Recover the amino acids of this structure.
């Protein structure tokens, strides 16, 4: 997520410095298109979970009803007697467990708390009902017991029927007058890693998600007048009896999100062979074109600096959301940034930031609960990389200084306990500490590495890291290992100090 609501006082000082210069973004020309074979071909499909989801949005009742057929594979070296999924919508059931941070509650809930949740209607495999239970402090963990232990390398097909009651909130999941947001909405397999099952609740801090890449096929039925923006390639739209069914498909991707609205307009363009769709709700032609230009520039720049975006399409979506949120192949952007004249700067940095997450979070994944800095600091630093390439190196340096270094320096004495970048999201004292450490000091860490090794080696580090870990989950140690591998020296003292 792009946290722009924080630290308004400190940030306002710096916005004056960079805010007035942001009209400079123009299409980047004279860059040869990058046209390489999709790295998706390198993924062994047989080792991935496969989701086949069919849902229908009931606009009148504010419900989403459907089923998910999940082909789950045991990639571990031990038998599994239970398989766990996250059912994140349940976090919205009670005020105490809501994933909306207290600081944002009033705005996101529009003054009144109203619940949202998921009802599991049935779970079966091969037409046999399976036993299951719902666990966790916020009831977001679904434990399913297969009929027999799932052996290493074995697959099970699980059919989960569900009904989601949508919360009336401007959040990752929720609806308002303009849009229906579906982020973290369906049952998604929990990650089994070296620490065992990761069964964290849906914390109201950071973007507390962790998932393995999987293949997706999703059919979404909506009232005919609705337009759906989603992860993946839109295969077809069928209209029958005042209802429209969209079919989306994507391989080797970390999650699936979508937004539906009966007010969407769509512009389509492409860059480096990647189709970009910009969904907006009105506003001026100039601002909507500006959003598209920022998206194109971001993709072009990160393709060149990090390695090619591995999917065929990406959607930039104006919606009811407090800032910006990254999902695979789709990013949610606060719709107000498309309207308000003072928000053009936010529109630009938020799009650049969320697009950067396609490299850091989507392609290269990480445990965003225990090690949020791994992707977030790189997305934050990518804003600097973006400005260097759209404006100038000096401009990037001034952005680094005013947006990160100075804000950190002004704030650091407020950090009450443990000035650590590397700690689980639930250990941070509050949103401000989290933002200053994970985003700002995190970006400073990358800038310090760059200072030490120079531009060429620094970007070689990021390219190597992307190349080695795309379609996988990386840890802090994996990143450190790449830095050491590329530079040929030990960095433990540096990282111990910084992290
Ligand atoms: Zn972010």
């Amino acid at each position: 997520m792009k946290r722009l609501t924080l630290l308004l006082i400190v940030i306002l000082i710096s916005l004056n410095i960079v805010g007035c210069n942001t009209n400079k973004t123009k299409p980047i020309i004279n860059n040869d298109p990058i046209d390489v074979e999709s790295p998706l071909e390198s993924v062994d499909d047989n080792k991935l979970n496969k989701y086949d989801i069919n849902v229908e949005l009931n606009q009148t009742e504010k419900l989403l009803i459907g089923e998910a057929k999940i082909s789950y594979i045991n990639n571990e070296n031990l038998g599994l007697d239970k398989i766990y999924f996250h059912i994140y919508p349940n976090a919205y059931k009670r005020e105490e467990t809501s994933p909306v941070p207290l600081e944002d509650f009033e705005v996101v809930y529009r003054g009144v708390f109203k619940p949202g949740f998921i009802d599991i209607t049935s779970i079966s495999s091969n037409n046999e009902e399976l036993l299951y239970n719902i666990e966790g402090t916020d009831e977001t963990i679904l434990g399913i017991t297969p009929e027999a232990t799932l052996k290493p390398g074995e697959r099970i097909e699980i059919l989960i029927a569900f009904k989601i009651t949508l919360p009336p909130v401007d959040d990752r999941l929720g609806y308002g007058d303009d849009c229906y947001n579906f982020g973290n909405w369906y049952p998604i397999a929990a990650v089994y890693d070296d620490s065992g099952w990761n069964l964290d609740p849906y914390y109201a801090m950071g973007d507390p998600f962790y998932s393995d890449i999987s293949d997706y096929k999703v059919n979404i039925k909506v009232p005919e007048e609705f337009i759906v923006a989603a992860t993946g390639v839109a295969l077809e739209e069928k209209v029958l009896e005042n209802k429209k069914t969209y079919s989306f498909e994507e391989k080797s991707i970390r999650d699936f999100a979508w937004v539906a609205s009966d007010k969407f307009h769509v512009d389509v363009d492409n860059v480096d062979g990647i189709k970009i769709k910009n969904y907006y709700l009105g506003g001026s032609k100039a601002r909507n074109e500006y959003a598209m230009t920022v998206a194109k520039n971001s993709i072009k720049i990160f393709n060149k600096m990090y390695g090619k975006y591995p999917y065929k399409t990406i959607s930039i979506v104006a919606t009811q959301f407090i800032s910006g949120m990254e999902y695979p192949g789709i990013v949610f952007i606060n719709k107000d940034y498309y309207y308000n004249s003072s928000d053009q700067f936010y529109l630009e940095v938020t799009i650049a930031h969320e697009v950067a997450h396609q490299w850091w979070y989507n392609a290269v994944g990480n445990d965003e609960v225990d090690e949020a800095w791994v992707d977030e600091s790189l997305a934050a630093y990518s804003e600097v990389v973006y400005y260097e390439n759209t404006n100038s190196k000096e401009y990037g340096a001034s952005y680094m200084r005013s947006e990160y270094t100075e804000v950190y320096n002004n704030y650091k004495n407020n950090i009450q306990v443990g000035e650590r970048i590397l700690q689980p999201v639930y250990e941070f004292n509050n949103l401000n500490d989290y933002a200053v450490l994970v985003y700002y000091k995190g970006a400073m860490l990358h800038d310090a590495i760059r200072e030490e090794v120079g531009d060429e080696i620094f970007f070689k580090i990021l390219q190597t890291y992307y190349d080695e870990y795309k379609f996988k989950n990386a840890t802090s140690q994996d990143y450190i290992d790449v830095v050491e591998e590329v530079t040929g020296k030990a960095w433990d003292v540096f990282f111990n100090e910084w992290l």
Notes: The longest strand covers residues 63-73. Residues 1-2, 353, 357, 376, 379 surround zinc ion (CB under 6 Å). The domain at 373-498 is CATH 1.10.390.10 (Neutral Protease; domain 2). The chain has three domains: 23-40+265-359, 49-212, 373-498.
